[in-house]
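Both lines are quoted verbatim for reference:

——
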Amino acid sequence: MGLLGLPRKLRLAPLWPALAAVLTATVTLWILLPGLLERSASVQLLDTARLLSPIVIQERRDATLDLQAWTRSVATDSGLRMTLVRSDGVVIADSARTPEEVAGMENHAGRPEILAALATGEGVSVRKSATTGQTYVYAARTLTDTGGHLVILRLAQPLAQIEALRGSIAAAMALALLAAAAAILLTSLWIDRRLFRPYYSLIAGAGELASGRIRRVPLPEEEELAALAVALNHLAATAETQLLAVRDERDHLMTILASMSEGVLVVEGDGRARLVNPAFRRLFDLGDSGVEVAGRTVLELLRQPELARIVDDTLRLREAQSGGIELQTPERRTLLLASAALAGGERGAVVVARDTTEMTRLAEMRRDFVANVSHELKTPLAAIRGYAETLRDGALDEPPTARRFTERILQHCRRLQALLDDLLTLSRLESVAGLESQAEREPVDLSAIVQRAVDLLAATARERQVAVEVEEEALPELRGDADSIERMVLNLLDNAIKYNQPDGEVLLRLAQDGQHAVLEVSDTGIGIPQESLARIFERFYRVDKGRARDDGGTGLGLAIVKHVVQAHGGQVDVESRVGKGTAFRVRLPL
């Protein structure tokens, strides 16, 4: 039985017994009423017959009396039907018939009430009259007149009168039933308001408290229910405080998990996932909320056997585990996994996935950088050493040879100096101090820098037979580091000249695009293969290694370009077709 259904039944509890008693009495009386009325009418008719017996005997003495008329007058006054019958069944008089009809009436010796009266002195019956066609209650009584003759006095009352009386009694019973129902209803409402409604409110409040919805209940007037309401309100206040604390702790925990850059997976003791944080969804491409994780095993959730092994070992051994996996989708990533069993005796485990892709890439870049620097330094140092040893061994005595070797040594020294300058520039751009120095920026005239770069490399362009043209719009000054921006323009222009073709062209275009200044350096040179476009901004990366070294390149120019652009909050793009030329496009915020 539900808590909500119980009070409604209890509200009707006082109504049912009283209503059932009234209905039972009414139905019983309604069933027994016809018999009671008939018996009452029979008794009343017999009593009336006893009273009339002396009068009938006295009237029989008068031989001149019109017995039929007298019978009619008596019946008219009493509302009864009176019949006088001789002992042989012949009707002497009948108040319901005329003298002619009485003479033609059939013998009544076989009537039940007549037979009973002849047998016992009195008799009653209820039946339909063969004479009048109506149903009567009959009462008959024998009497002996002064002449010693036996006469039967029979009185009859139409059943219709009894039925009318029954209807009146039924109406009275119905009114009594309605009055009783109204009294019971009013009593029930009073009890409901004083007792059951507060009780129902208490049960409803307890039900909502059990389901997690906290609300206070009003205090009833009844002392016992008021004490229960006070206790329930105190329990609700305590539960509300605890729920708020749990909710705050849960929200705090979820905020921490959502703010973590590491992915977190919590599993139950059976190895099924309980929850994951947003970082875990991002790392494993689960979507923000599109994939339901609760209740699924690790292999169902992610096709990562190594992750499943770490979870199984942690649950089985109750010891911390670690490992690593490499993801291919949505992009290639390297993850470091660390797991631990849940504390406090609760079975389960938590796995933390840390994205080490950038760290791995930086480590690889560091190794490549050391190897590249070593290689770049090794070649000129070996050449310088060789030339120096040759000079020491006697070439100094040969002025032409000594002069040629000295020029080679100076050439390699200049190459080393350029390499060191580029390394120092990159170090400055990547260092924290270098980034902070970019915050103290000055107004920069990009048009003047472009013109200065063209002037500085004009001799190189003439030597390589490359025409340099500048197209520019009027630009407002931007804020930045003028030296770094000039180094960027020089590197782009120098590459466009070096890797061009004889009689080639270089176009520098300056324009404004919204809140950005756009510098485009395009050439008609050898171009860059499509597979190399993604790597040209890496340090020491050369598309044509032999030609780059012959031209004196260090392999750091485009790396410097990228870092300068990023330091100024801009971006650099490149388009190229082999044999057709290359175009670098730099966007810097104004």
